[in-house]
Every structure is written in structure tokens, then in C-alpha cells.
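pls design
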């Protein structure tokens, strides 16, 4: 699925233009539909479909009639009909796939909503359009300051100029009804243009502004999601999710749209389960369902009065117990059917990848204590004047000087 400037490489794979969503032919932008019928020719005698799809700011799309039989392709900048004046947009889809999109969104060709395409935009039209787009951000800041000064409980989320810069549409969100008559007067005096206020929902606001979700990816509503279906807390209950508003709410403050993605699979799986409010009648007593596991296909029951002792059963076993109770032949107890819970086995992690240890260069520490080395002292030289000799002391290991004359006296006394 490559756009015009990306082209294709070997085996039909896209090379990639690396424009990161700013592709000149509009093939990499958000909410873009790939025209898989573009390389197919129409049967003989069939005329091409005269409606085209045009995209405006932040993914806003409308269908227009090509009454002038212009040769249009994806990425062309066109001037279309607006009230009043004209608007500038980019063609995102042409041909028979537009007919499919209009049928999907229930838009009739003869409807008044389908306006006309005037011409391909000239350079003058594009310059006026770009100049008006550059004014939107500072206008939004100033408009919020005026709304705060008037103490209005509303949030101006975005401003969109018309292509001919004759009108500015202010998109805002509010929980209650807002009287903005004074606000429009000040906007007209401040910005010197025609003002239109349009209230949108919180989901539409998140789709226009964009962002990163808790999953780490760009928001679905700003990339590919075009219709917003209602999401209720029952979707979370069917999927056994905790009703924590901080985890279930998205950036718009409403329940996440992704709660509906896997809901049908859960509902199909729950068809094989008995109703949770059905009590099991046994000879030992009545058991009540405490918990279910859709992936395992298991249910946990506890006797009335013994709420701490749970018994795990499969769906087939529960159906057998319910059938026996209807036939007035209740089973003796749940212990006959209860499966033994598998004990958790501690997994010993091993080096299966072959990575070396981070401490492979560290020297291992010896377990034996280090021995203190004794410093060897040099023997002292004998002094010629005193005739002393250094003798090591047995107790301290030090040497004491002794006189030779004293030694001779001791030896003479021993001989006597």
C-alpha cells in the first residue's frame, strides 16, 4: 500500500518516502482509505462515478460532485462549494470506491449535503488558504482568554478557517448549555471575520486533537476510527474487568472505545456457560457461583455458609449438576466433581539465550580472611663504646641491649 511518491520496490512492496504523515499525495495521512480498485478498468459502456471524497483539517471529510468532469486523482488540491464562498480541500478518494463509502455512510448522491467541486485550486487560492491556517493557533489562545474572562463553562478546542478566509469555525465542548451571544460579539470585534460556533462531543475533541493512548499507540479515533459507538460498563463486566474509572476511561474522559473490540468474542464464549445466578442444588447444600474464567472454561462455586471454600468446576460438570437437579436426583456434593487446583510451579529461569553474566569481569571475593603480614625489622648494629648486643625478647619479640660484663659475672657465679 504505497502512495504516489512512495512508489513500489521489489515484489510490490512500498519503498517508503519517510515523510511521516505529510506525504504530498495524501497517501500516508490519517483516516486515508487505500484505493484497491485504482488499477482495475471499468467494464465497457460504464461511466466513472462522478463523486469524490475530499478531506479538510483534522480528518474532516465530505463527498462532492464532479459536475465539471475534472480529471482528479488522490492528492489534488481543489476548491469546493461552501456557504458562503468556497473552501479548499485535498482529494482522498476517487472512482468506484467512493460509491462504496457513500453507501456505507448512508449518503445519497442526490442529497443536498453533496455539494459541487468548482475547480482545481490555483496558487492564489493555496496562498490565501495557508495564510488563514497560520492565524488559527494565536486566535485559539486569544479566544480562550476571552471565554475565561466572561466566565463561560466551555472549552474552545480547535479553530478551522474556511479556504477563502471568509469564515472561522470555533469547535468547543461543554457539559451544559452555554449562552455565548456576548462571546460572539467580542470575537467579531477582535478577529474581524464571520464567526460560527459548533459544539462537539468529548470523543470528537480527542479525535481532532490526537494523542497517545495507554497502549502506547496513537489514538484509534484520530487514525482510523470514523464512527463512535456507545460504550457501556456492561462491556467491562462481560470481560471480567474491574470497574476502575481511571483504567477504563480514555483521554476524552469517556469509556475506551477498545472495550467493544473483543466484546463479541466474549459474548460468544459466554453462550457455553450457564447463567451465573443459577444456584446448584446438591444433597450437601446449595452452592452459589463466585467467579468464572472464560479462557479456562471454569467456574468456582461455594456452599451457602461456607463462603471461604471454593470448588472449581468445568462447564460440562455444572450442566450435569443442573440437569440432575431438574430431574430431582441431586448429586451428593460438589467434591465429587471438583477438579484439583494445579499447584503453582516455581519456574527456574536459566540462561537460554546464551548471554554472559554482567559480573563476569569482577574478581571473586575470597572467603578466607586476609593474613596480616609482619614487618621485618633490620637488626641493630652493636655499639663499640658500650659493648652491647641486641637480644630478642620472647614476650614482645623486640630486642633489648645487654652488657657483656654483666653476662660474664653471671657465668662466673654459676661456675662457683
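designed seq:
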Amino acid at each position: 500500500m504505497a502512495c504516489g511518491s512512495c512508489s513500489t520496490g521489489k515484489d510490490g512492496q512500498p519503498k517508503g518516502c519517510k515523510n511521516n504523515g505529510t506525504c504530498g499525495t495524501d497517501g500516508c495521512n490519517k483516516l486515508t482509505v487505500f484505493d484497491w480498485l485504482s488499477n482495475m478498468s471499468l467494464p465497457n459502456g460504464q461511466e466513472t462515478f462522478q463523486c469524490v471524497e475530499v478531506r479538510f483539517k483534522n480528518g474532516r471529510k465530505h463527498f462532492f460532485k464532479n459536475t465539471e468532469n475534472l480529471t482528479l486523482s488522490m492528492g489534488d488540491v481543489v476548491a469546493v462549494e461552501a456557504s458562503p464562498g468556497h473552501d479548499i480541500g485535498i482529494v482522498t478518494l476517487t472512482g468506484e470506491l467512493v460509491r462504496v463509502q457513500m453507501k456505507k455512510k448512508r449518503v445519497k448522491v442526490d442529497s443536498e449535503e453533496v455539494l459541487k467541486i468548482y475547480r482545481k485550486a490555483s496558487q492564489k487560492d493555496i496562498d490565501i488558504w495557508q495564510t488563514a491556517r497560520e492565524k488559527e493557533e494565536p486566535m485559539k489562545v486569544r479566544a480562550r482568554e476571552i471565554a475565561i474572562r466572561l466566565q463561560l463553562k466551555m472549552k474552545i478546542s480547535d479553530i478551522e478557517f474556511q479556504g477563502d478566509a471568509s469564515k472561522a469555525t470555533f469547535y468547543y465542548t461543554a457539559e451544559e448549555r452555554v449562552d455565548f451571544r456576548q462571546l460572539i460579539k467580542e470575537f467579531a470585534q477582535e478577529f474581524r471575520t464571520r464567526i460560527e460556533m459548533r459544539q462537539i462531543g468529548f470523543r470528537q475533541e480527542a479525535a481532532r486533537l490526537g494523542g497517545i493512548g495507554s497502549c502506547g499507540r496513537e489514538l484509534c479515533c484520530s487514525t482510523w476510527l470514523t464512527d463512535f459507538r456507545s460504550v457501556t460498563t456492561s462491556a467491562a463486566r462481560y470481560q471480567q474487568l474491574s470497574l476502575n474509572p481511571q483504567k477504563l476511561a480514555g483521554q476524552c474522559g469517556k469509556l475506551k472505545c477498545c472495550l467493544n473490540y473483543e466484546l463479541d468474542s466474549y459474548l460468544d464464549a459466554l453462550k457455553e456457560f450457564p447463567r451465573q445466578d443459577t444456584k446448584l442444588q446438591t444433597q450437601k447444600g446449595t452452592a452459589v457461583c463466585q467467579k468464572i474464567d472464560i479462557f479456562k472454561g471454569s467456574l468456582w462455586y461455594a456452599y451457602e455458609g461456607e463462603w471461604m471454600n471454593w470448588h472449581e468446576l468445568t462447564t460440562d460438570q455444572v450442566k450435569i449438576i443442573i440437569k440432575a437437579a431438574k430431574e430431582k436426583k441431586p448429586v451428593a456434593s460438589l467434591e465429587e466433581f471438583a477438579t484439583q487446583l494445579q499447584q503453582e510451579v516455581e519456574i527456574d529461569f536459566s540462561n537460554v539465550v546464551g548471554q554472559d553474566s554482567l559480573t563476569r569481569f569482577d574478581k571473586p571475593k575470597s572467603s578466607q580472611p586476609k593474613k596480616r603480614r609482619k614487618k621485618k625489622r633490620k637488626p641493630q648494629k652493636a655499639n663499640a663504646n658500650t659493648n652491647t648486643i641486641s637480644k630478642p625478647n620472647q614476650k614482645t619479640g623486640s630486642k633489648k641491649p645487654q652488657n657483656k660484663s654483666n653476662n660474664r659475672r653471671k657465668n662466673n657465679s654459676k661456675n662457683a
